[in-house]
Amino acid sequence: MQLRYSFRLYPSAGQRAALARAFGCARVVFNDGLRVREETRVAGLGFVTSGELSKRLTAAKKTPERAWLGEVSSVVLQQSLRDLDTAYRNFFDGLKNKRPKVGAPRFKSKRDNHQSIRFTANAGWRITPGRKLRLPKVGDVAVRWSRVLPSTPSTVTVIKDAAGRYFASFVVETAASETLPKTTPEIGIDLGLGHFAVFSDGTKVNSPRFLRRAEKRLKKAQRELCRKEKGSKNRDKARVTVARSHARVADARSEFHHRLSTRIIRENQAVAVEDLAVKGLARTRLAKSIHDAGWSAFVAMLEYKAARYGRTFIRIGRFEPTSQVCARCGVKDGPKPLSVREWTCGACGTVLDRDVNAAVNVAKAAGLAVSACGAWVRQALVPAPRDEAGTHPKQPARPVREQAGIPGL
Predict the structure, then answer these.
(1) CA-to-CA distance for 351 and 374, rounded, in angstroms?
(2) Catalytic residue (one of 186, 190, 303, 353)
(3) Packing angle of the helix pair 74-95, 13-42 (nearest 10 deg)
(4) Tens-of-pLDDT digits for all 409 residues of the chain?
(5) Catalytic residue among 274, 292, 303, 353, which?
(6) Is 26:114 a contact under the CB 8 Å cutoff?
(7) Cα angle at 374 between 369 and 375, to 5 degrees?
(8) Residue 383 CA neighbour count, 13 Å, CB half
(9) Residue among 32, 186, 292, 355 flagged as catalytic
(10) How far is the C-alpha of 237 from the C-alpha of 241, rounded, in Å?
(11) What residues contact 167, with CB distance under 8 A and at least 6 apart?
(12) DSSP readout, 54-100?
């Protein structure tokens, strides 16, 4: 499987200027290619191919107006055209219902806070003996290697985020040799806001609420930004301060997701979660809390780590009534408002915790055999042995009431 490894870069002042030129040239090539295709579409002409765009790029570099495109690696410019092709392909595949729908490609702005360029193997980039990243027409950039790459990558993407940080992103192939030893626990997980996750064994993980805890600092930084004059250097500095504050929140949330998902995958053989409609929930009054929780990113981590380490990952349908069915007797007693955190089942009299009960029902819907807080999960039906199934061919079947010793009416 393919995994992405990101490492922090620390370019010098001259290298930052070279990277800025590369970002700008890649953006111009992308916009030029998009403009050509849009003009031909409006004129009713055929779709301009990638080869034709590449020829036009080569010719443009020889003109005085675009001669500065030669100051950066040609591979970066060609990869920008490949990104344009990918954007069109995703757009057309969305129209054909081959993937989720996305909008048509749009022009990039030099004021975008997220910039990226990509170097392939034929660009001549490499990792030097001194553990630096050598990029063509940029130089040897210092890297903080936080871990070892499992294999030799073929491409590297250099990214600059809104906070002004630089990263090197590698996509590498990993073998399936990291399979963890088999274990017995199998759990269902109910995601929420009061508790970030509740497991079917009764364990509850509190919600860190990183954004809520940082709101005071973020509000102060945002007020300072609003007071600065538009277009001034002080406003740009204030914008970076706001971006860094948001980056700290995002990094803390990602670290929490990684630690929790890794622990869950290591300790359990099978994991079941509910397929939540996060986009729909994010349009409610709980939008800020839902975005702060980051359920989608967490579930995605569980899914790829399960595939990587040989665990079983199961998504159940979002319309399963996990909060309406008693996990002990299976009786469905209807929906309940969010204020109801505990209730007593009217059929069996069991006192049920709303979140734990939902987690157990998630595990049941996924076919896992677990128990939690006295609530037992009914096992799947097992076919009867051949000598017990059906009736004897020479003996007529008796009514069920007669078999149970109940006199007939």
Answers:
(1) 10
(2) 190
(3) 40
(4) 788 899 999 999 999 999 999 999 999 999 999 999 999 999 988 889 999 999 999 999 999 999 999 999 999 999 999 999 999 999 999 999 999 899 999 999 988 889 999 999 889 899 999 999 999 999 999 999 998 888 888 899 999 999 999 999 998 887 655 778 888 888 999 999 889 999 988 899 999 999 999 999 999 999 999 999 998 999 999 999 999 999 999 999 999 999 999 999 999 999 999 888 888 888 888 899 999 999 999 999 999 999 888 899 999 888 888 888 887 787 887 788 888 888 888 778 778 888 888 888 888 887 775 544 434 433 333 333 333 333 334 444 444 334 334 333 3
(5) 274
(6) no
(7) 50
(8) 3
(9) 355
(10) 6
(11) 6, 7, 8, 9, 158, 159, 160, 161
(12) HHHHHHHTTSGGGGGGGGS-HHHHHHHHHHHHHHHHHHHHHHTTSS-
Beta strands in 282-394 (DSSP E): 312-316, 342-344, 351-353, 371-372, 375-376
User: DSSP letter at 332?
Assistant: B
Host H or E run for residue 57: helix 50-60
Known catalytic membership, residue 387: no
How many Å apart are CA 186 and CA 179, to the nearest integer? Answer: 17
Gyration radius of the chain's alpha carbons:
29
User: What are phi and psi for residue 380, nearest 5 degrees?
Assistant: -65, 150
Closest CA to 34 of 101, 73, 79, 87: 87
**Euclidean distance between CA atoms 383 and 365, whole angstroms:** 20
Q: Which of 72, 103, 100, 82 is nearest to 33 (CA)?
A: 82
Q: Is 201 a catalytic residue?
A: no
For residue 274, indicate whether it is catalytic: yes
Query: Considering Cα of 304, then 378, then 325, then 207, what sign does the dihedral take?
Result: negative
Residue reference for tokens 């993980």:
205
pTM: 0.81
DSSP code for 70: G
Pick the closest to residue 67 from 123, 20, 117, 28 (CA basis): 28
